[in-house]
Fold this protein.
Amino acid sequence: MAISVDWASWSEYRELERQTVKLPAGGDMPCAIFFPADYSVGMANLGLHYIYRALRENGAASERFFLSPIPYRSVERDTLLERFPLILGSISYESDILGFAGWLRHGGVEPSRRRRESGSVTQAPLIGAGGAVTYINPISLSGVCDFVVLGDGVGTAADLVRILRRGSDRAGTLSALAEHGAVYVPSIHGSGRHSLLPAKRDVSSDYGRGVWTTPRTVFGDALLLELQRGCVRGCGFCTLPSCFAPVRVRSLCRVKRDFEEAMKASEFSRVGFVTPEAGDYKNLEELLDFVSSCGKGVSFASLRADSITEKMMKALVGGGRHSVTIAPETGSEELRRKTGKGFPNSLVIDVLKMASDMGARKAKLYFMFGLPQETDEQLAEISELCVRARSETGLQITAAASPFVPKPGTSWAKEEFAGEKNLKRKHTLISRSFGGYSGVRLQPASIKEACIEYAVSWAGAHVSEFIAEETLTGASYKKLVCMTDRSSTGHELDMLGLRQAGTAGKGAP
Ligand code: SF4
């Protein structure tokens, strides 16, 4: 159903939400939790569910805000943003930082920390952030945020509420936060050497499922259920192996208990497993049997071709999904081996055949381009694999090709970023190779988005300030990319004690 943008209440959304966890009502510390995307995307993010729950369980009156459809009123009570002295951003992706700054600006809150500190802004709220970006490069948030909670925010929530509740002045609160080893306070940690350490929580705790189910998410009414944090594989481009280490696996018993408790409290038709690669969870088959015996379907974010079993596919396709998603990353077997995914193209075809035989009609294949040492011939292999998949399986194939962006903390952090011009050339080659094959489609790629992602991933203090102070236009976006200096950011992370393997890289293209 289309929602009018001037719609003033979240009441219809609230009515559809079912809580799976009983939370204390009220609280004495009003806190706006903002997710920089539409409600349907934010509500499919388990991290948002966790931080909301952790703050509420520690007595903070947290309320949710989303970028759309109603950006400046809370979901819980339609409260206006201006009533909140504390705003926390839940930031999963680098480009979300731009969304966070823009949302603050349009909501009448000064997004620049420097300007708020200069005293020219009266009664500014305290602004913090947490989320996946903080594992990779928290300095990218320093232009906007007064403080950044590093790592798993659930483990730090009790300390955060205790410090914030003490109610001393702004400077006193920030000093107290800066003494917590998992909180980065840019105004205090901006100089000197420090030993910050992101919090890594024990996943066997009570936190393992989404707080709500609602049909209005991108995954439908799925119950979010966490299986594992961190990944045992070592794909060079991926942030999960190093930034989210160590691998922490939730026991089958714990996962089942979360599922059963959610069934008693809420309504949902399927379960969305939250885990890097579902096939790596050793009790997955038993869990699938259990979920199916309870009459629920399942969904996985993306499947790794070399770990898909018949039972997984049956659960996925039999559960009403007529589409499967696989990430071969590249059409070239040689290049794929270098990424850390050693499976051949024949395995991709076999998996898609299995999906087709079980009733799937469509497949989405994710690829990257601009990979290290990639040749133009290897780019053409993307369409070759897609065309082969179409002709041998009969599935409708949609290919999504995204530029490779080297990230801090990954083992490919030092690899070259191809740059706008080269990426455009490569994407043109890929598009041409797709020709006019029926049943095979290439989605458009946003090269500009990738350049922004690169710049924000490696944003040091100056770049982050620029993001907070500028509304990005065509010209300032190019300046943002030119300002990127990986070595300097590596040094800044090093000074905070946060340097990870391979952080120092080559300069901007
Ligand atoms: S790409 Fe997938 S398999 Fe590879 S490290 Fe990342 S999560 Fe693990």
